[in-house]
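Anyone have tokens for STAS domain-containing protein? Sequence:
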Amino acid sequence: MDQIVRVSDYLQENAESLVDKIVEDALKNVTFEISPEQFEIARQQNAEFLRMMARSFPATDEEAGDELLKWAEQQGESNSQNMEEFSKSIEPFAQNRLVYSKHIAQVALDLEVGPVQIVRIMNRFNYLLDVAMVQSIKSFEKHQNEKLKERQKLINELSAPIVPVQEGVAILPLIGIVDYDRMTYILNYVIPKIPKMEIDHLIIDFSGILTIDTEIAQHIFTLHNVLQLLGIDLYFTGMRPNITMAIVQGNIDFSDFHTFGSVLQALAAIEKKK
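Reply: yep, here.
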């Protein structure tokens, strides 16, 4: 244990100078341009990693992993800001492992550490490096998933606008594919806005929809009931034969619904009703 502590102390005290050598060797494996700012960030991150790793040598794997997990999560979030840069950063991973291993093993040999203790040190290093990589990838995936959700929400907002066309009358044009997520968005975010818009009649136009399944057809039935409870008359226009078939297959009774071939026909019916 004394030999391991000696290596730990040396690495912590000389982290900066040792990292300079490690980064210099690691850059030989990099195939893309690195700015001075990126170089300095990489240098600081590697020095921090080296110190953490050195502090962990006398500890157990579980104790060593706790601090590293927090650090790796932060690095993963930082690197995930750009997918291309993140993918490039892990390309030389295997070569960088060898660079680290060479320098750490040399330090241990210079300090006359025995072979058994060197093996223990290298095992700890490889364990922590794997933990760091796995956590960084998880953080990256989490960040990317959050970005995808934000983009999907924006797409839903743009693809389901409520357009007022007359006093008390608005159109909700549906375009593209109506799936479960999009219908859920309409029910949870679009419909609650309608009472504030002083709308008495809402036309949902399906002419831009290619197809829906029976589950979505059931949600349309729910949509009708919700708006009815709010005192809003609902009109369906532009339903294609395949959409009608999905409704029939879902055993949904549309006989009481207002359906029209076009928006103009629905507007004419609303005008007569006023």
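The two ends are 90 Å apart (CA to CA).
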